[in-house]
Amino acid sequence: DSARFEGTTSPITIGDGFAYGGSATICKHNSSLYLQYNNGAATTDLNIGGGGTAVRIHDSQNSSYRFTSASSTNSWVVANGGNFGVGVAAPNAAIHVKNYLSGMTARFQQTVDGAESAVRFQTLDGTISRYADISLSATSGNLSFRVPYNATAALILANDQNAYFAENVRV
Asked: What DSSP assignment string belongs to 90-126?
Protein backbone atom coordinates (compact mmCIF):
# COMPACT_ATOMS: atom_id res chain seq x y z
CA ASP A 1 0.00 0.00 0.00
CA SER A 2 1.18 3.50 -0.70
CA ALA A 3 0.03 7.08 -0.90
CA ARG A 4 1.15 9.43 -3.64
CA PHE A 5 0.77 13.16 -3.21
CA GLU A 6 0.75 14.84 -6.59
CA GLY A 7 1.85 18.40 -7.10
CA THR A 8 2.49 20.26 -10.30
CA THR A 9 6.24 19.50 -10.22
CA SER A 10 7.11 17.64 -6.99
CA PRO A 11 5.15 14.47 -6.21
CA ILE A 12 5.88 12.68 -2.92
CA THR A 13 5.23 8.97 -2.43
CA ILE A 14 5.00 7.28 0.96
CA GLY A 15 4.56 3.57 0.80
CA ASP A 16 5.67 -0.02 0.58
CA GLY A 17 7.67 -0.05 -2.65
CA PHE A 18 10.73 1.53 -4.21
CA ALA A 19 11.47 3.57 -7.33
CA TYR A 20 8.07 4.93 -8.28
CA GLY A 21 9.89 7.30 -10.60
CA GLY A 22 8.61 10.42 -8.88
CA SER A 23 10.69 13.27 -7.59
CA ALA A 24 10.56 12.06 -3.99
CA THR A 25 9.80 8.64 -2.54
CA ILE A 26 9.72 7.51 1.07
CA CYS A 27 9.14 3.79 1.32
CA LYS A 28 9.77 0.60 3.20
CA HIS A 29 11.28 -2.26 1.25
CA ASN A 30 11.83 -5.52 3.12
CA SER A 31 13.48 -4.44 6.40
CA SER A 32 14.87 -1.12 5.12
CA LEU A 33 13.47 2.41 4.94
CA TYR A 34 14.36 4.42 1.84
CA LEU A 35 14.24 8.10 1.02
CA GLN A 36 14.79 8.54 -2.70
CA TYR A 37 15.06 11.91 -4.40
CA ASN A 38 15.64 12.23 -8.11
CA ASN A 39 15.79 15.73 -9.51
CA GLY A 40 17.91 14.93 -12.55
CA ALA A 41 20.83 16.92 -11.11
CA ALA A 42 24.34 15.63 -10.42
CA THR A 43 24.03 16.30 -6.68
CA THR A 44 21.30 15.80 -4.11
CA ASP A 45 20.95 17.09 -0.53
CA LEU A 46 18.98 15.62 2.35
CA ASN A 47 18.42 18.07 5.21
CA ILE A 48 17.36 16.77 8.61
CA GLY A 49 16.28 19.13 11.38
CA GLY A 50 15.33 22.74 11.28
CA GLY A 51 15.64 26.10 12.94
CA GLY A 52 19.25 26.51 11.81
CA THR A 53 20.37 23.16 13.29
CA ALA A 54 19.99 21.01 10.19
CA VAL A 55 22.33 18.18 9.33
CA ARG A 56 22.91 17.85 5.62
CA ILE A 57 23.81 14.70 3.70
CA HIS A 58 25.13 15.71 0.29
CA ASP A 59 25.35 13.09 -2.49
CA SER A 60 27.60 13.86 -5.45
CA GLN A 61 26.81 11.05 -7.88
CA ASN A 62 29.62 8.48 -7.77
CA SER A 63 31.97 11.05 -6.25
CA SER A 64 31.45 11.47 -2.52
CA TYR A 65 29.04 11.83 0.37
CA ARG A 66 29.36 14.83 2.67
CA PHE A 67 27.83 15.04 6.12
CA THR A 68 27.70 18.59 7.40
CA SER A 69 26.15 20.73 10.09
CA ALA A 70 24.47 24.06 9.48
CA SER A 71 27.71 25.91 10.26
CA SER A 72 30.13 23.79 8.22
CA THR A 73 30.66 22.84 4.59
CA ASN A 74 32.74 19.70 5.17
CA SER A 75 32.20 18.16 8.60
CA TRP A 76 33.12 14.76 7.21
CA VAL A 77 33.35 13.24 3.76
CA VAL A 78 33.39 9.70 2.40
CA ALA A 79 34.94 9.99 -1.06
CA ASN A 80 34.67 7.63 -3.99
CA GLY A 81 37.38 5.03 -3.45
CA GLY A 82 36.93 4.97 0.32
CA ASN A 83 39.02 7.94 1.51
CA PHE A 84 37.60 9.52 4.66
CA GLY A 85 38.02 13.21 5.41
CA VAL A 86 37.23 15.43 8.37
CA GLY A 87 37.13 19.15 7.61
CA VAL A 88 38.30 18.63 4.02
CA ALA A 89 36.23 18.42 0.82
CA ALA A 90 38.49 16.05 -1.15
CA PRO A 91 40.45 13.69 1.11
CA ASN A 92 43.63 12.52 -0.63
CA ALA A 93 44.59 9.80 1.87
CA ALA A 94 42.76 6.95 3.58
CA ILE A 95 42.20 9.31 6.53
CA HIS A 96 42.67 13.04 5.94
CA VAL A 97 41.99 15.49 8.78
CA LYS A 98 42.17 19.28 8.41
CA ASN A 99 41.98 21.48 11.48
CA TYR A 100 40.79 25.07 11.03
CA LEU A 101 41.49 26.00 14.65
CA SER A 102 44.69 26.21 16.64
CA GLY A 103 45.38 23.40 19.04
CA MET A 104 44.78 19.67 18.92
CA THR A 105 43.90 18.08 15.57
CA ALA A 106 43.26 14.51 16.72
CA ARG A 107 42.78 12.74 20.02
CA PHE A 108 43.07 9.04 20.76
CA GLN A 109 41.65 8.13 24.15
CA GLN A 110 41.83 4.79 25.94
CA THR A 111 38.95 4.27 28.37
CA VAL A 112 40.11 1.01 29.97
CA ASP A 113 41.70 1.80 33.34
CA GLY A 114 45.43 1.09 33.32
CA ALA A 115 45.65 0.26 29.60
CA GLU A 116 48.06 2.03 27.28
CA SER A 117 46.83 4.08 24.35
CA ALA A 118 48.64 3.26 21.12
CA VAL A 119 48.81 3.95 17.39
CA ARG A 120 50.08 1.16 15.13
CA PHE A 121 51.74 1.69 11.77
CA GLN A 122 51.80 -1.22 9.31
CA THR A 123 53.39 -1.65 5.92
CA LEU A 124 53.72 -4.56 3.52
CA ASP A 125 56.87 -5.61 1.65
CA GLY A 126 55.82 -8.46 -0.63
CA THR A 127 54.37 -10.94 1.84
CA ILE A 128 56.14 -9.52 4.92
CA SER A 129 54.17 -7.16 7.14
CA ARG A 130 56.14 -4.71 9.26
CA TYR A 131 54.72 -2.95 12.29
CA ALA A 132 55.68 -0.15 14.66
CA ASP A 133 53.80 1.26 17.65
CA ILE A 134 53.78 4.58 19.43
CA SER A 135 52.16 4.17 22.82
CA LEU A 136 51.43 6.15 25.97
CA SER A 137 51.60 4.28 29.25
CA ALA A 138 48.66 4.85 31.58
CA THR A 139 50.75 4.03 34.64
CA SER A 140 54.01 5.92 33.97
CA GLY A 141 52.96 8.55 31.42
CA ASN A 142 55.93 7.51 29.24
CA LEU A 143 55.69 7.69 25.44
CA SER A 144 57.30 4.60 23.83
CA PHE A 145 58.36 3.79 20.27
CA ARG A 146 58.50 0.05 19.53
CA VAL A 147 59.83 -1.44 16.28
CA PRO A 148 58.67 -4.12 15.71
CA TYR A 149 55.49 -3.57 17.69
CA ASN A 150 56.07 -6.48 20.09
CA ALA A 151 59.72 -5.64 20.83
CA THR A 152 61.23 -3.78 23.74
CA ALA A 153 60.82 -0.04 23.28
CA ALA A 154 63.54 1.40 21.03
CA LEU A 155 62.97 4.86 22.49
CA ILE A 156 61.13 6.04 25.58
CA LEU A 157 60.33 9.69 26.14
CA ALA A 158 59.76 9.63 29.87
CA ASN A 159 57.38 11.62 31.98
CA ASP A 160 60.46 13.03 33.80
CA GLN A 161 61.57 14.75 30.53
CA ASN A 162 64.40 12.25 29.90
CA ALA A 163 64.87 10.11 26.80
CA TYR A 164 65.91 6.47 27.11
CA PHE A 165 67.24 4.40 24.20
CA ALA A 166 67.39 0.63 23.89
CA GLU A 167 70.74 -1.12 23.57
CA ASN A 168 72.85 -0.67 20.43
CA VAL A 169 72.08 3.05 20.22
CA ARG A 170 73.46 4.82 17.17
CA VAL A 171 73.37 8.59 17.19
From this structure: S--SSEEE---SSS-S------STT--EEEEEEEEET
